[in-house]
Design brief:
This protein is α/β, with parallel strands linked by helices. It contains 10 helices and 10 strands. It starts with a helix and ends in a 5-residue tail after the last strand. Bound molecules: zinc ion. Zinc ion binds next to loops. The site of zinc ion (ZN) has 9 residues, from loops.
């Protein structure tokens, strides 16, 4: 019953980003990493927002998440892959800290990280002197954060309970594409941010150089875990709709290499895949350096604006 209901809701909805009701079939994409099932992508003809169709409901999407790999992976420091993985993680923590302080314009403040996973980013920000709150839906990830990093992460439902005007910065690193209730989240963010607050959202970009190269093999489609697939235009519309003013777009260069590697793996390219992925990453890097809208993933920085602004 639930599947039928979700299919019906999906076919009649307006575009959550721009409000149009003009969906066209875009692609059929396979879930390469967990289920092997195929999903359709539908695209809004106006703002190029794509959505996964059908979208598994919150109650049924759990079976598409296989978090075991990720967690065991991050626990060991042995082997070259894990060393590279840890080096990349530390590099990204520093970069995120830099992006946050530059976006906010001050080196300290109060931060809410939504979708905090095992807590490395909020932990890093706390050590850097920020006042930090974090939310995460996965109970296991919250436990790991508590045991390993001694940081408290609250269930995602606590978002409802946070009071108005209390955060300087809200961050979502590759999270919004997983969220069913975009409207509820964005309305809430606007409420709990201080008047001068900054919203920072990083998401994959399906108009990027690597997305165009890999098409249905592009690893950042990651259906059905990614319910939404953003274009820069769609993100601008979405932010505008909830009274946020987009101020900056920043390309995430490392993602181009990682996503290209994974896409080659899905294509079954073997050894030449590593070389192809390197060139794909470099091509995306150079293109995105000139035009951010070509980047594999984009960080959108937005300020809270008042209605009609
Ligand atoms: Zn649209």
């Amino acid at each position: 019953m639930e599947t039928i209901k979700s299919t019906l809701e999906n076919s009649t909805m307006v575009c959550p980003a721009c409000g149009a009701k003009n969906w066209v079939p875009a692609d059929e994409v396979k879930d390469f990493s967990v289920s092997g099932e195929s999903f359709e992508l539908k695209m809004c003809n106006l703002c190029h927002f794509k959505r996964t169709f059908p979208q598994p409901l919150p109650a049924e999407i759990g079976r598409y998440y296989a978090s075991e790999d990720y967690i065991s992976h991050s626990d060991t420091k042995n082997g070259l892959i894990n060393k590279l993985y840890h080096a990349a993680r530390i590099y990204m923590l520093k970069k995120k800290h830099q992006w946050v302080t530059e976006a906010f314009g001050k080196s300290k403040g109060s931060l809410l990280d939504v979708g905090a996973g095992t807590g490395h980013f909020p932990h890093y920000m706390k050590l850097s002197g920020w006042q930090v709150a974090a939310l995460e839906p996965d109970e296991k990830a919250r436990q790991i954060a508590a045991e390993k990093l001694h940081i408290t992460i609250d269930p995602i439902e606590h978002l409802e309970e946070l009071s108005a005007d209390q955060f300087d910065v809200i961050t979502l690193w590759h999270v919004l594409e997983h969220v069913h209730d975009l409207k509820g989240y964005l309305e809430r963010f606007n409420r709990i941010l201080k008047p001068e607050g900054v919203l920072i959202i990083a998401v994959p970009n399906h108009t990027s150089v690597d997305a165009k190269r890999y098409k249905t093999y592009w690893a950042a489609y990651d259906v059905p875990r990614h319910l939404w697939h953003f274009s820069p235009r769609a993100m601008e519309c979405l932010l505008d709709q909830y009274q946020f003013k987009l101020t900056t777009k920043i390309p995430m260069h490392l993602d181009a290499f990682y996503v290209s590697m994974l896409s080659e793996k899905y294509k079954g390219s073997g050894f030449t895949g590593t070389i192809n992925a390197f060139f794909s990453g470099m091509k995306t890097y150079f293109s995105a350096s000139k035009n951010v809208d070509q980047g594999s993933s984009i960080i959108y920085v937005a300020k809270k604006g008042s209605a009609g602004e």
